[in-house]
């Protein structure tokens, strides 16, 4: 593939990716949050860094600054301009994005790309470099000054082409040359490529710091593993969560049964484990049972064990979970699902510390501490008569409510980072972390499935993201439109699929499934829903097809195809 000099494709697609959201105080370019700031501020900052760090270290810092933004823009270029077929167009998106961001106008002089045969040559003239303007007051310099721009070019090309490319600024107006000109080649074509690549290595001090942090993390991991506590350290610094942890810890040394109330996936099991680990019983077993997962007819034999011949199929005697938890803690999750008979038997254990295997003639002593959990309103179950009152009061001695994730939103970022590092380790991945948009979506989502759902989303994101790429909102949530607190505030979904204010203006509580059910009940067909969504997205994007497609999580081409299919105006 070669062109000399190539023409830029239209920059419309790149401009469409730029969104100004003044009400929210944000500017976005694709998935990255951007900043608009005066050149004079950047100039001031540069002067200060050169004075404090010296020229060479400041240069390295600015080259790396450019390098990082080049890296992110390469992802955007590829996602907007596509795959290998359109490689030249994707490559040219780099200088076009650079121009769009007000850094420089890059005039292409020459481009030759034949990567299969290991050949790449690219040359640009830079007009209106912001860095030359920043340096102008200092007068002509001894060396080229477009550091950030150069770092950007190196990263953009390398990341996009999947080969290490290095650019050199062969002439620069900042040192009195008539124009700024850069030449890019595959790194190995430059004799000094190794020394040059050092510019992009982080400061030795920072390297050492990272290394130290990595060693501490490994040691902590080893420690947790030897104590059998891997995964069991609850993360959360919101006051509500910390208060609850403090209460949990104060209950740990006593023998009192603990009842944990909270929605599914809020971390009740992790808390039960913590209680166990902090108690005198930490050396004994921790056994967890999900009462809802065991068929009612088997629950008693599961919990209390069974004697050989007690019923057909009981071919040998078996220990129950209570016996296995002897000397330790038994965690009964979904307690409300226990059958009346199992409730009666559980009450006896709590009162007498004795169990009776199914089919046994005698009782036996057990020493077990019970931690129970439920997401249902147990008191209501008592009132309805489906849960024993005496058992309820026995278990209700020390009750803790575990807050749902939407009430501890400040913890989302820390939890997401925690799961990210665990899954990167597990899948042997090295992503560049979450994109700004992905991070913001994580913070806004309602999380009906709480921490378990957050964990699953991050796992999905890591699996779908290649090394050295950012985890996008789509990788986390798929094409499914994220129900956020913002979008739901005062909104419902009417039969035409449009978002509307609910009559009383209160936040809509309907889940996606409920909303879909409402549409079906309103008699809408799939085609009608699709058509209504296309129209709504189009109307909500002022007719901008790329923006409308993005709102529906589709490519522009797929969206345009559907418009045509329904004969909708484009
Ligand atoms: N505070 C936390 N810090 C780190 N990980 C957590 C935290 N809370 C929960 N998790 C993780 O989230 C997942 C769900 O937690 P857990 O199984 O304890 O929830 P649960 O409330 O017991 O759910 P259910 O009621 O559905 O059984 C687990 O994988 C757990 O490791």
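Q: What amino acid sequence fits the structure above?
A:
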């Amino acid at each position: 593939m070669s062109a000399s000099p190539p023409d830029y494709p239209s920059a419309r697609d790149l401009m469409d990716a730029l969104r100004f959201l003044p009400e929210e105080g944000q500017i976005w370019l694709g998935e990255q949050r951007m900043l608009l700031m005066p050149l004079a501020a950047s100039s001031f900052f540069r002067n200060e860094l050169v004075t404090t760090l010296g020229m060479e270290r400041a240069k390295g810092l600015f080259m790396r600054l450019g390098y990082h933004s080049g890296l992110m823009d390469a992802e955007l270029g590829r996602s907007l301009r596509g795959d290998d077929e359109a490689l030249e167009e994707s490559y040219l998106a780099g200088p076009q994005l650079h121009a769009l961001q007000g850094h420089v106008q890059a005039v292409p002089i020459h481009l030759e790309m034949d990567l299969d045969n290991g050949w790449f040559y690219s040359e640009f003239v830079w007009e209106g470099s912001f860095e030359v303007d920043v340096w102008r007051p200092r007068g002509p310099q001894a060396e080229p000054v477009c550091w950030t721009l150069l770092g950007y070019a190196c990263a953009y090309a390398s990341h996009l082409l999947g080969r290490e490319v290095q650019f050199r600024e062969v002439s620069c107006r900042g040192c009195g040359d008539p124009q700024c000109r850069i030449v890019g080649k595959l790194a190995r074509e430059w004799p000094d490529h190794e020394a040059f690549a050092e510019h992009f290595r982080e400061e030795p001090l920072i390297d050492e710091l990272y290394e130290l942090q990595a060693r501490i993390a490994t040691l902590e991991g080893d420690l947790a593993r030897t104590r059998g506590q891997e995964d069991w350290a609850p993360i959360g610094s919101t006051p509500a969560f910390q208060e609850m942890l403090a209460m949990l810890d104060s209950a740990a040394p006593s023998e009192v049964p603990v009842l944990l109330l909270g929605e599914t996936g809020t971390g009740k099991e992790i808390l039960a484990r913590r209680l166990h680990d902090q108690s005198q019983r930490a050396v004994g077993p921790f056994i967890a049972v999900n009462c809802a997962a065991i068929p009612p007819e088997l629950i008693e034999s599961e919990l209390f064990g069974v004697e050989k011949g007690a019923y057909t199929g009981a071919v040998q005697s078996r220990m129950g979970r209570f016996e296995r938890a002897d000397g330790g803690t038994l965690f009964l999750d979904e307690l409300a699902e226990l059958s009346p008979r199992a409730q009666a038997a559980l009450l006896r254990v709590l009162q007498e510390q004795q169990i009776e295997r199914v089919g046994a003639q005698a009782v036996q002593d057990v020493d077990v501490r019970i931690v129970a959990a439920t997401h249902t309103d147990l008191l209501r179950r008592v009132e309805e008569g489906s849960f024993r009152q005496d058992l309820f009061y026995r278990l209700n001695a020390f009750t803790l409510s575990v807050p749902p994730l939407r009430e501890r939103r400040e913890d989302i970022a820390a939890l997401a980072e925690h799961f990210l590092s665990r899954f990167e380790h597990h899948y042997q991945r090295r992503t560049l972390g979450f994109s700004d948009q992905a991070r913001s979506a994580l913070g806004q989502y309602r999380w009906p499935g709480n921490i378990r759902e957050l964990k699953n989303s991050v796992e999905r994101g890591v699996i779908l993201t290649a090394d050295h790429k950012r985890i996008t909102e789509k990788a986390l949530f798929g094409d499914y439109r994220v129900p956020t607190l913002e979008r739901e505030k005062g909104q419902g979904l009417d039969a035409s699929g449009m978002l509307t204010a609910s009559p009383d203006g209160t936040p809509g509580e309907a889940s996606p499934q409920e909303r879909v059910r409402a549409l079906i009940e309103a008699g809408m067909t799939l085609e009608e829903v699709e058509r209504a969504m296309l129209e709504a997205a189009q109307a909500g994007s002022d007719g901008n097809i790329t923006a409308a497609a993005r709102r529906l999580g589709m490519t522009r081409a797929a969206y345009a195809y559907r418009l045509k299919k329904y004969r909708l105006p484009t």
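Q: And what stands out in the fold?
A: The two ends are 34 Å apart (CA to CA).
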